[in-house]
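Risk mitigation, structural track. In case the binding assays with uridine-diphosphate-N-acetylglucosamine fail to produce interpretable data, a predicted complex structure has been prepared as a fallback.
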Amino acid sequence: MGKTVLSIVGARPNFMKIGPVIDGLKSVGIAAPLVHTGQHYDEAMNDRFFSDLGLPRPDVNLEVGSGSHAQQTAEIMRRFEPVLDEIAPDALLVVGDVNSTIACALVAAKKGVRVIHVEAGLRSYDRAMPEEINRVLTDQISDLLFITERDALANLIREGIDPARVIFVGNVMIDTLVKNLPRAVPAAATLSAAGAGFAEGYALVTLHRPSNVDDPVVLTRLLTVLAEIAAATPVVFPIHPRTRARIEQAGLSPLVEKADMLLLPPAGYLEMLGLMRSARLAITDSGGVQEETTALGVPCLTVRENTERPITVTAGTNSVVGTDPESIRATWRDILATGGKTGRIPEFWDGKAGERIAAALAGRL
Ligand code: UD1
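Fallback model:
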């Protein structure tokens, strides 16, 4: 009988990972239904990515929406259980490290449904990061773990995971990038539509990690240094809804408005790809942007104390600079002066990770 692998998406960073997996599964004759938890639901955070990426419409949307971590995770679990019973797949496939990932993996593991984790083994070793808890726990209850970089294996072995269950396949998010680069919206089009008088030479900023935006002291510090950078280099800043809300709550809107930054609503995937490709540098706390800039050869300055994606630093264009204004400034100046790190493309970030996953599953289900 034909096999079925049920895939889950929930939040923005899941959307650019799932297409290559579903295409791969279908190509080896595995049925690939899709459940959306509804963790992200705004047009700009959700619908746009489905159309940009040509993703299949989810078979079910659990429509959980926002909430505290406990509420959101619990609500996903409660609503997902009957759907899992109904679909009764041979395995559940989850990607990344968002609340939807752990919630659905936990439901499946307790029901004896095999769990497959794509993008396993990444560790920041920072348990203050909600995603780190999601990563560690999802990996512990997964039967098959697909990794994006070889170092991830050592992390998993340290946590007692049998290396026989771990397979190095590369990075499905880069599959999506490779496939869509020819369709990227040119930065010049996005920027002129937003009224900007420049089309290159800019710093592209994204910020949304709770550790950076939830604490008004840290947020003020970061926005102040960004305003300083904006006085010398054009700054383009598509704002995540969480960040927008925190800026307003902390009374920082005047600071942002006074600075010469181009604020945009959250960008769609094809728009973001165009903006990244033409940027002089990126300043970010996103996991995905660290990887995408490495794949594009654009210098990236990561405003976090650590990264769970060390290959972007050792092989790629990423520098982890923390949130200290002086180190942000110093790295930014260095990038302007020297062009920044050039880097190389990490092993298996070649557009074929989805195929490797499908080939591995075809032999194992
Ligand atoms: C989630 C992921 C994070 C990922 C990020 C990308 C977890 C723990 N975090 O963080 O790893 O990098 O997505 O965006 O899963 N909101 C909207 N519209 C939406 C979705 C959210 O306005 O469509 C607002 C709500 O006020 C919500 C807040 O953003 O409370 C945070 O959303 P949530 O899904 O809890 O976490 P993110 O910060 O988006």
